[in-house]
Amino acid sequence: MGNLGIIFKRELVSYFATPLAYVFIVIFLISNGIFTFDLGGFYARGQADLLPFFSFHPWLYLFMVPAIAMTLWADERKTGTIELLLTLPVTLGDAILGKFLAAWALTGLALLLTFPIWITVNYLGDPDNGVIFAAYLGSWFMAGGFLAIGACMSASTKNSVIAFILTVSICFLFVIMGSPILLDAFPDWVPQGIVDAFSAMGFLTHFDSIAKGVLDIRDILFFGVFIAAWLGASAIVIEIRKAN
Amino acid sequence: MIEIHNLTKKFEQFTAVDNLSFTVKEGEVLGFLGPNGAGKSTTMKIITGFLSPTEGTVTIDGHDIGKQPIAAKSLLGYLPEGAPSYGDMTTLEFLRFIAAVRGFSGAELEQRVKRVVAQVELQSVSQQTIDTLSKGFKRRVGLAQAIMHDPKVLILDEPTDGLDPNQKHHVRQLIKNLARDKIVIISTHILEEVTAVCTRAIIISNGRIVADGTPAELESRSRYHHAVSVRLNSQYDLAADLSGVASIAAVEKNPEEELSYTILATDGAPIFSQVSEIAQARHWPVTEFHVNRGQLEDVFRKVTQSAQGGV
């Protein structure tokens, strides 16, 4: 097992050593239930799909994912273990990726545990399971995007509460970037190209089509590149800030 | 061998390490001394590759820490200041993690972990979460991870800070045992530690080296070097007997103890036989009579304060 794997395993185990992982998963599942069945009108729609389930995910992740991400680096810096970790024979890349993947695996696990809803919809009707699978994948990638922002914010401070607030704010910005409310707010003199570029950065732009079952490889690619960019930024932030 | 060339570290306006150069060879236990904020920890963080220097290079057995960080870090064992470790893990889990990162697996991993647990006596807390351990145990966990791979170079930032005298003694013994054919660098501000374990001491102040030598050499720079301490059992005017002797600089009365005096030598020359002859000839009422090696503390104050402009 390479160092990436060793760090990944340590991080993942440590989530379950404290109640954090369990609390996260339980709240995630309960919120999903409320959103889907109460607010989403799962039964009232009378359609065998999971659209009401998935369309709430951006808003759910907005608060849930930063809670996972906030300690990623802030705690390492606060307790000084960052000095231990980065003087071991591991590369910064292994450390960043190992931590990120562990947190991402935890959100993936939480997502997998929503499987009863998938069973329910299959019991009640005859949904397109390909669409559902695509939406799950898209949702997981979007969670990764939130998480990568959180990793970078967590690297910038010793205080995990500050990291949480920063992450929520920036994630909120990326969620609403593609929404009509924000796009309509642009004055007429702004070139259409800029408005489009702005909209193309929005999470909703990419996720809405995924949630409806249109799995465009470009949407997945968007989240992939987005994650890579924010993790790259974390590396720079860690390099700059680790002396403080 | 560790070679440090023209190391400088600037934090914005502040220069923490200022053009530092020195070499440490196998078998040396280097005590790294200096007042708080002198740049000890910063230097250690650069040597271990945690921080990169503004200027200068560090090579460990020919591996530049900046250019070949993984090769260089593999040779190092490091106990950072405050002995940080992952508090939510148990001692064994943590040490297994370190061993895995150090490239051990399977039976060898277990054997390595077992060996360091025995070396620093962690058996009684091996199943406990690190967060629940006392300060002394936490520091020992930090030491255990540093010596896991039997490193060629051991860098310990204040290894005995916060330990009780027994634990201090134990850690010093451990360092002494480990030190053969290794390079050990210890930062400390406990001066007795330097005399106890180090073969060489470097004193830095404001990021510069102000003294470098064996503890004995440094002690000889003290004004108490070769001074003779005398304790009497009744009042006697020593100064009168010694006033004409050229090799004697002064007689100091010990402020903390009645009838106790220190006779200082001029330029640190040996004066014991001379003083003892006078004492016998004049029948001093002596109960105690011994030579001082010199006080490291005195030298430390002298060199660090003159570097700061004689405060």
List the helices and strands and how they pair.
The complex is a heterodimer of chains A (244) and B (311).
Chain A: H1 3-17, H2 20-39, H3 51-55, H4 57-69, H5 71-79, H6 81-87, H7 92-112, H8 115-124, H9 129-155, H10 160-176, H11 180-184, H12 192-200, H13 203-211, H14 217-241
Chain B: E1 2-11, E2 14-24, E3 29-33, H1 40-47, E4 55-60, E5 63-64, H2 69-74, E6 76-79, H3 91-101, H4 106-119, H5 135-146, E7 153-157, H6 165-178, E8 183-187, H7 191-197, E9 200-205, E10 208-213, H8 215-219, E11 228-232, H9 238-242, E12 248-253, E13 260-265, H10 272-281, E14 286-291, H11 296-307
Parallel strand pairs in B: 3-8, 3-9, 6-7, 7-8
Antiparallel strand pairs in B: 1-2, 1-4, 4-5, 9-10, 11-13, 11-14, 12-13
Describe the structure.
The complex is a heterodimer of chains A (244) and B (311). Chain A is an all-alpha fold and 244 residues long. Helix content of chain A is 79%, strand content 0%. Chain A has one domain (3-241). The radius of gyration of chain A is 19 Å and the shape is globular. In chain B, strands 6-7-8-3-9-10 form a 6-stranded mixed sheet, sandwiched between helices. A 4-stranded antiparallel sheet of chain B has the order 2-1-4-5. A 4-stranded antiparallel sheet of chain B has the order 12-13-11-14. In chain B, a hairpin with a 2-residue loop joins strand 4 and strand 5. Chain B is elongated, with a radius of gyration of 24 Å. The model of chain B has no long low-confidence stretch (mean pLDDT 88). The interface between A and B is medium-sized, with 22 and 30 residues.
List keywords for this structure.
heterodimer; A: 244 residues; mainly alpha; 14 helices; 0% strand; B: alpha/beta; 11 helices; 14 strands; 27% strand
